[in-house]
Amino acid sequence: TKYVFAFTEGDKDKKDLLGGKGANLAEMMKLGIPVPPGFTITTEACRAYLAQGSSPDTLGVEVTTALRQMEADMGKKLGDPDDLLLLSVRSGAKFSMPGMMETVLNIGLNDQSVEGLARKSGNPRFAWDSYRRLIQMFGKTVLDIDGDYFADALDAAKDKRGVTQDTELDVDALKELVDVYKDIVERETGVPFPQTPREQMDKAIEAVFRSWNTDRAKIYRRRERIPHDLGTAVNVQAMVFGNMGDKSGTGVCFTRDPSTGHTGVYGDYLVNAQGEDVVAGIRNTLPLDALKELDEKSYNELMANLHTLETHYRDMCDIEFTVEEGKLWLLQTRVGKRTASAAFRIASQLVEERLITRDEALTRVNGEQLTQLLFPQFDDEAEKITLTKGMAASPGAAVGEIVFNNAEAVARTKAGADVILVRRETNPDDLEGMVVASGILTARGGKTSHAAVVARGMGRCCVVGAEELYVDESTETVTIRGSDRVLKAGDVIAIDGTSGYVYLGDVPVTPSPVSIYIEEGLEAGIAAAHDDETKELVAAVDLLLTHADKRARLKVRANADAPEDVARARKFGATGIGLCRTEHMFLGDRRQLIETVILAETPEEQNAAFEALSPLQRGDFVGILEAMDGLPTTIRLIDPPLHEFLPDITDLTVKIAVKEATGVEVTEKERKLLKAVREQHEQNPMLGLRGVRLGLKIRGLFGLQIRAIAEAAADRIEAGGDPRPEIMVPLVGSVRELQIIREDAEEIIAAVEESRGVTLNIQIGAMIELPRAAMTAHSLTEESDFFSFGTNDLTQTAWGFSRDDVESTFFNEYFDLGVFGVSPFESIDVRGVGKLVAVGVEKARSVKPDIKCGVCGEHGGDPQSIHFFDAVGLDYVSCSPFRVPVARLEAGRAAV
Ligand code: ADP
Ligand code: MG
Ligand code: MG
């Protein structure tokens, strides 16, 4: 196996093997963009290392060969004080995981070569600064030493000299600092800082391999649904130096604004700094325009390269660059992460610029992003007390209690509070707090700081660089400079990730213009937008959603069971109801009647209860059929076990026991109830008397519902409507079950048709939620006009999981052990449960080629699942009303 590829050997399509960073570095080389030479160690080598705990045997040799080639190209040698080649060792997985894994810069420096570098560069300050950075990064990432030791020593050095910036430390100070750092290494590890360049490099490579499995990397992958078994590639690259003085610097930029999607280059620049300083928010950065003033030649060259990259990738790119003494180098590029609104605006801009087609534009946005745009925003009209303004880093409106660290963030959210994580700046250790917080606020850093990048990725509201804030993490207070206001942990603030404003106290929120567009159409949406950017956004969403509807093969229905929800679903673009549950219609006041049905000792008693329920049910259905007039409406007959309508067994037993013990009379009804509750009690209600089984045991119950549906349809027809009810029988396992219900139903429907003098076109179909039903779908087809896969229950029955029991007991372990990356209840388990769906569809269609098949259940609103359902040829997905726009977009995306 070949484990090492020079940058000249790769290209952007080899991300599996070379990781995103390595593949794109190679692509830039091909485009003739100035990239420092280097090579990539494959993800395969990382996987081998992680599996066996050591690098593959041949890796060392391959690295030597590649390194020598690099040395020959550069005319320099690793660690040679006279012609010094220094290296960076950089992580880079297939999917970008910003700040999650490790990178070590300035590899190759030691006590001798630092002198050589000082001499050769004529810049001793730079040489010693680089050396102290190496020891610091190497100590922290490779040797696992607590980074605070180094940070504290750095602060102490600055204090001692009365300076505030790293750049103000002179050579002597840096030499002293190097000694302190070396002492820290020796004290913490028992051995001196390694002086051999090759040893430094090899250790750094292995540390990058290992960084794949840090806790924070795992948390990040779980969130982003990145598989745990990919591993990272490692890029070894010649160093270029942004910390050589005032003619050098380093920066990050985007070809369009990643938070708003504004056209035009956007970026941050730091003079006399090395790589990580920008992202770490150590100093406040300058806007990119500053580079134009400082070094117009490098600036122009950078602009030309950005243009080349955007044209080549046909998308917004982000770039890391460094200027070394007036010479520009690009160190990284990738298709840039962006906020949801930027994604939509950029996609529609690129369509307008004729750089991509509408179909391609659909691939540039996704349902999750659309969800984010539907979030409410702060009410413009509301009175607000402005505390300060920072940079808008990730949009949204968040209100919550101030917390200063992960522990508080987790504890307060567990207690039900919304929290805002407030930090001077964030670093990867803050991830846990960022995940649970409603919003993130930092005092330092730019739009490309850690906080901003991570928050955008998570769709979390974030404001950064609010410089007026003085955050004292030790006393847990925030002071606003120039005012005497001091905020403590627990105080409520509101942050606006779209404008950067920070407000005191609770601020009311209003619906987003995009959600108004979804509900009321383009004109209303645009009217609700307060600025041109938002108007453009609404138009962009319309462009893409309209195209998605045009392209989609899958139809989108909604799960809804109250007329208001049905109406809302229709506004959101649902083309029918895929699942109208009926059980809640037996709750509240009606519970009493169901109790009577269960307790009835004679058919007469039972029928009386049915008679009482009948008009009520009919009323429910009239409302729903009216709201969905002209569109198919699948009504599921009652599904849950009867005990759900009865009092809890323990409560009732206790109540009666207490009565007996205190001599209070126990009524006849209570005794009967207890008896019934005992009889109905099941060990595994999920697998017990429910669905069609219940319908067969208490025939009148389904009969009541079927009659109510038929009567309601007749009512609607008489009122001039166009009702399209479909009756769905839950939990069918055998064709005989369905046949019996069907015969009953046909009889009832015929009777209603006759008595009302109307023709009712009511389809009857089975809900497929048992493996047996899926495997025998061809025979069920004989009695079924349609099928709907109930994938929630199908997941439970295929895995033998009871959802309520398993999710809280062992799913976390299952994620950690890699049994699944994402819960099978969230995203369809393609290989198992999905296979049952595929087989069911295939068997059904082998008998009735155009039998309508759909899916209802949570998966109907899950993007990945939707793509799967499209692929297996389902006719529709049904999801909750709020997911309908998302499902429409995804159905369109699945078709292109
Ligand atoms: P991440 O994946 O976290 O972005 P990188 O590997 O890109 O980490 O490196 C971290 C920082 O170090 C970046 O700012 C990058 O530009 C800088 N850097 C990496 N390699 C070099 C190099 N060869 N010369 C100069 N700076 C470098
Ligand atoms: Mg980077
Ligand atoms: Mg079910």
TrEMBL record:
Can you give the residue ranges of the Pyruvate phosphate dikinase AMP/ATP-binding domain? 16-53, 61-284, 293-347
Database matches in Gene3D superfamilies: 1.20.80.30, ATP-grasp fold, A domain, ATP-grasp fold, B domain, Phosphoenolpyruvate-binding domains, Phosphohistidine domain, Pyruvate Phosphate Dikinase, domain 2
Q: Where is the PEP-utilising enzyme mobile domain?
A: 418-500
Highest taxon, organism lineage: Bacteria
Could you tell me which Pfam families the record lists for this protein? PEP-utilizers, PEP-utilizers_C, PPDK_N
Residues in PEP-utilising enzyme C-terminal domain copies: 544-892
The enzyme's E.C. designation: 2.7.9.1
Q: Keyword Nucleotide-binding on this protein?
A: yes
From the UniProt record, list the reaction(s) this protein catalyses: pyruvate + phosphate + ATP = phosphoenolpyruvate + AMP + diphosphate + H(+)
Task: Report the cofactors.
Answer: Mg(2+)
InterPro entries the record matches: ATP_grasp_subdomain_1, PEP-util_enz_mobile_dom, PEP_util_AS, PEP_util_C, Phosphohistidine_dom_sf, PPDK_AMP/ATP-bd, Pyruvate_phosphate_dikinase, Pyrv/PenolPyrv_kinase-like_dom
Listed A to Z, the keywords are: ATP-binding, Kinase, Magnesium, Metal-binding, Nucleotide-binding, Pyruvate, Transferase
Annotated GO MF terms? pyruvate, phosphate dikinase activity
Per the record's keyword annotation, is Transferase included, yes or no?
Answer: yes
Q: Which family does it belong to?
A: Belongs to the PEP-utilizing enzyme family.
For this protein, the record's PANTHER family field holds: PHOSPHOENOLPYRUVATE DIKINASE-RELATED, PYRUVATE, PHOSPHATE DIKINASE 1, CHLOROPLASTIC
Question: What name does UniProt use for this protein?
Answer: Pyruvate, phosphate dikinase
